[in-house]
User: Which sequence fits this backbone?
């Protein structure tokens, strides 16, 4: 079986969409934060927190959509914490973000152990089931795989459109983009830069958290330690790869997930000729390469990492 | 409300800030302990007892502090130059790999030669890993936070591969571990009936050396200048790119030495669980110390105490040991705020 054959299997395309879903949420979330001028390195921890919180909600008897809303809410709280440090106090976005990642992931593990002290094998929940979209899923070739996904994957795709529309076609979106490029101009319009940035970081963090929740509520059915496994950092790289654009973020996540899905399949057919660890390295190597390739064209939001203090002159 | 820069922050306030911050973190985590239903005072008493309450506990804490001093220094030096090296974990494993490669029989040297060779090899291995992100930061302006972070995952998988493949000890009964370090390469214990080894002295000397370099040498001055204002430093004639590379070598080298110390001082052979995140904790160590090399020693002892103490507390009462990680993370965030309160004063209006 060669690579072309793999590309023609429906399983490959279904896997690509599945792997891409948390990356789409995470990348969109990071993108919104950075567009408003705030680098959110809390992403890895917030995704872990979302994975734990959403799962725990369902495990304690709540329903799946409630769990999703809960994960988003918790993500917002961490976003609020991040923005009170970086936006209102103007503290280092690097250090705050790393601090929040440490806090959110250790807190998730603490809470998980606290509520389930004796669990040796991770308990399971009934996750989201795939839903076949009528008509579209009957299309020949790719229809059955692409249009038979869990609701969260559809939600991710809808988010791309909504966020694109929100950022480029609404006044709020314009204010968010301006806050990341030229906060003084926002201030001159009589709009509160700090409020815009805080809002963006909170919404972005909620999306990251939902991306994490996808792992425990859709892709798998249990919470494992270290299950986010660098996906958050990969999202940070994908934002740069996507030049801070939602549409390109979707493309980047799909491309990335496609290569990831491909490596799993190539690994299966290659036997033991190449050690499996080198395949597992692929996503991380790829992320670094993506950043290096796009580096020359990277148009960072001009006010990224720069705290805004009212009354300061540029 | 607005913030006003203090002209000259009082020195006592600067010293008090991290202490107050840790106090605040302890208070916040008391909330978690209340939730577990245990007594807060008893829990913290058990933690302190587990950390420093006996000769054994103290020796364990010092043993745990040894790698943290080195990874903490690695983060402190890099962060001073605003080189965000989050790759301490991977650099540590590169150092451990170098020690394993040269120390398992490849070199036939007496201890007085072999140990320094292993330390230097580990430092070079750790440093050279950080050179790559530093170079692409210099040449292409690629953010080093993400590249150093992602390298951790790559290096761990690489070590995993070596331990299951070329470096696997055939005598290890199937466990993925490397061959043991030859006796000539092992660090002597410095305290009887404990695991405390010469690595602690090496770490302390490293802290002293870094302090001297940062305080009294041109290199140290250049590192600080680049961190404070890279453009200004460039105008003053400092070669910013060269300084970044030099900082990367020192920082990665320190983390590499931490890995060597764990292999030749504590474990005796390389496994995949050599470090329970020493590289990441080193960042917290450096932040608590406000990037001061001597402060790093203090904060490494403190954090090591929290981890060792929480382990023994977790055995005695029904509190997950992850409390230690929560405590460390909230300390980092509290220190950030307290340091800001030292630099600024809050004014109304």
Assistant:
């Amino acid at each position: 079986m060669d690579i072309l054959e793999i590309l023609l299997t429906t399983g490959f395309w279904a896997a690509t969409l599945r792997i891409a879903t948390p990356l789409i949420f995470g990348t969109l979330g990071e993108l919104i934060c950075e567009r408003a001028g705030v680098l959110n390195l809390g992403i890895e921890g917030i995704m872990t927190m979302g994975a734990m919180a959403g799962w725990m909600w369902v495990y304690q008897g709540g329903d799946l959509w409630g769990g999703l809303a809960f994960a988003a809410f918790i993500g917002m709280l961490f976003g609020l914490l991040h923005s009170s440090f970086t936006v209102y106090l103007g503290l280092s976005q690097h250090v705050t973000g790393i601090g929040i990642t440490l806090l959110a992931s250790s807190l998730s593990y603490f809470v998980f152990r606290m509520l389930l002290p004796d669990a040796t094998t991770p308990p399971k929940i009934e996750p989201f089931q795939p839903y076949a979209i009528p008509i579209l899923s009957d299309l020949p070739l790719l229809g059955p795989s692409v249009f038979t996904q869990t609701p969260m994957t559809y939600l991710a795709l809808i988010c791309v459109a909504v966020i694109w529309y929100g950022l480029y076609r609404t006044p709020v979106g314009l204010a968010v983009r301006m806050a990341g490029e030229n906060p003084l101009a926002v201030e001159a319009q009589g709009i509160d830069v700090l409020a815009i940035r805080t809002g963006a970081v909170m919404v972005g963090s909620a999306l990251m958290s939902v991306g994490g929740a996808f792992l425990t509520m859709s892709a798998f059915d249990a919470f494992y330690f270290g299950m986010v496994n660098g996906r958050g950092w990969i999202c940070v790289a994908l934002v740069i790869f996507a030049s801070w654009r939602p549409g390109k973020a979707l493309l980047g996540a799909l491309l990335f997930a496609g290569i990831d899905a491909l490596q799993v399949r190539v690994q299966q057919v290659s036997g033991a000729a190449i050690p499996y660890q080198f395949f597992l390295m692929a996503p991380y190597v790829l992320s670094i390469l993506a950043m290096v390739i796009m580096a020359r064209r990277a148009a960072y939001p001009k006010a990224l990492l720069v705290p805004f203090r009212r009354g300061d002159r540029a | 409300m607005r913030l006003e820069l203090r002209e000259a922050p009082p020195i006592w306030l600067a010293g008090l800030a991290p202490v107050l911050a840790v106090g605040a973190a302890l208070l916040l985590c008391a909330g978690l302990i209340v939730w577990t239903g245990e007594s807060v005072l008893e829990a913290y008493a058990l933690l302190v007892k587990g950390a420093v309450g006996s000769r054994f506990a103290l020796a364990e804490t010092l043993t745990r502090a040894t790698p943290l001093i080195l990874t903490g220094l690695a983060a402190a030096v890099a962060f001073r130059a605003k080189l965000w090296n989050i790759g301490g974990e991977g650099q540590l494993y590169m150092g451990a790999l170098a020690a394993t490669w040269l120390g398992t029989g490849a070199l036939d040297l007496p201890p007085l030669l072999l140990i320094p060779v292993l330390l230097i090899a580990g430092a070079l291995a750790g440093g050279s890993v950080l050179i790559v992100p530093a170079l692409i930061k210099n040449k292409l302006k690629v953010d080093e936070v993400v590249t150093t972070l992602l390298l951790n995952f790559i290096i761990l998988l690489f070590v995993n591969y070596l331990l299951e493949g070329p470096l696997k000890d055939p005598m290890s009964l199937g466990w993925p571990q490397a061959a043991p370090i030859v006796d000539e390469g092992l660090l002597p214990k410095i305290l009887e009936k404990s695991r405390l080894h010469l690595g602690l002295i090496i770490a302390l000397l490293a802290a002293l050396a870094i302090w001297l370099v940062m305080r009294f040498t041109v290199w140290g001055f250049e590192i600080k200048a680049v961190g404070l204002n890279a453009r200004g430093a460039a105008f003053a004639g400092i070669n910013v790119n060269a300084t970044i590379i030099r900082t990367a070598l020192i920082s990665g080298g320190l983390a590499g030495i931490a890995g060597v110390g764990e292999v030749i001082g504590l474990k005796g052979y390389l496994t995949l669980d050599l470090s329970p995140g020493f590289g990441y904790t080193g960042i917290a160590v450096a932040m608590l110390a406000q990037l001061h090399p001597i402060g790093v020693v203090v904060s490494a002892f403190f954090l090591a105490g929290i981890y060792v103490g929480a382990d023994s507390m977790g055995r005695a009462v029904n509190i997950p040991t992850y409390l230690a990680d929560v405590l460390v993370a909230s300390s980092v965030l509290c220190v950030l705020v307290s340091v800001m309160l030292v630099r600024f004063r809050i004014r109304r209006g």
About this structure: The interface with chain A takes residues 2-3, 32, 35-36, 84, 86, 136, 140-143, 145-147, 149-151, 153-154, 157-158, 160-161, 164-165, 280, 283-284, 287, 318, 320, 322-323, 325-326, 328-330, 332-333, 336-337, 340 of chain B (CB under 8 Å). Residues 133 and 298 of chain B are 30 Å apart (CA to CA).
